[in-house]
Amino acid sequence: GHITAETLMSILRDKASGICVDAEGFRTAGSMVSVLPRDPALPCVHFFTATPDPSRSVFKPFVFVAGIKPAPQVRSPTFLQDPARQIPRFQSSVDRRHELYRRHQAALELMEQDQERGQQLLETLQELEKQGLEGMRELLE
Fold first, then answer.
1. I need a surface site. Which of 81, 105, 125, 129 has the fewest CB within 10 A?
2. Residue 132 and residue 50: Cα distance in Å, rounded?
3. Which processes are annotated in GO (biological process) (predicted)?
């Protein structure tokens, strides 16, 4: 009956169902949950992981507004000598991972190498996500 953003986030994190995949060289690339209020005067709030494996990612809130500038942490880097733009193309490679992705990968490594510290980090991230959900509820009230 009553589906919340948390319900959808939980579904997207469900590894047992096969929705969230982290095996055999394939990992869920990223996930998104949108809250679309019935009142057109209220903003739509979108939650993006912007990182793979939603079971170990944080859904971050975002509201689209005019003139918004993308956060530099989620923009892929640009290169003066970009191999994709040189002829012949792709004769070299560059690291196109954005800062948030690189930090996410470091967090995953910590979670795998030091379970206690990794669990503490995951709990901190989950608390930040909870704060984002609470902020969304306040915005929409």
1. 81
2. 15
3. proteolysis
CA distance 36 to 4: 11
Residue 15 structure tokens: 């590894």
Q: Residue 87 and residue 45: Cα distance in Å, rounded?
A: 42
Range of the domain at 55: 5-139
State the average pLDDT for the chain. Answer: 89
Separation between Cα atoms, residue 136 and residue 128, nearest integer Å = 13
Full-model pTM? 0.79
Whole-number Å distance between alpha carbons of 103 and 107 = 6
Percentage of the residues of the chain whose pLDDT score is greater than 90? 41
Please name the residues in contact with 104: beta carbons below 8 A apart, sequence gap of 6 or more: 51, 52, 57
